[in-house]
């Protein structure tokens, strides 16, 4: 069929037609393949378990700090009020670290999926370039 295009409309017009056809298909795939759906926002069971565990540990640490503050066991740090000292202790606790670590596993899985999609698009782009060169 490509040979017929070449014979009927000429080499330049046939190569432009095929190039634009591939470009159209490429952009269609780009738009359709990379839409983010609800499935992309739902973590798998192991990731959810890790996240829930991290949240549970972080909550318990903060509960202990709150309990100590309510029982008047907290003391003001030098140069800070009791409230500032409490906030500092919460910030220094491992709460944020637990949450960061739990999100890291999900982020790695997303990065792997994106690399697969990027490789697919790169192959499409390379194939398009080869056809345009012909």
TrEMBL record:
Alphabetical list of InterPro entries matching this protein: RNA_pol_Rpb1_3_sf (IPR042102), Rpb1_funnel_sf (IPR038120)
Keyword field: DNA-directed RNA polymerase, Nucleotidyltransferase, Transcription, Transferase
Gene Ontology CC: one annotated term: DNA-directed RNA polymerase complex
Top-level taxon of origin: Eukaryota
EC number of the protein: 2.7.7.6
EC main group: transferase
Keyword Transcription (UniProt): yes
Annotated GO MF terms: DNA-directed RNA polymerase activity
Protein name per UniProt: DNA-directed RNA polymerase
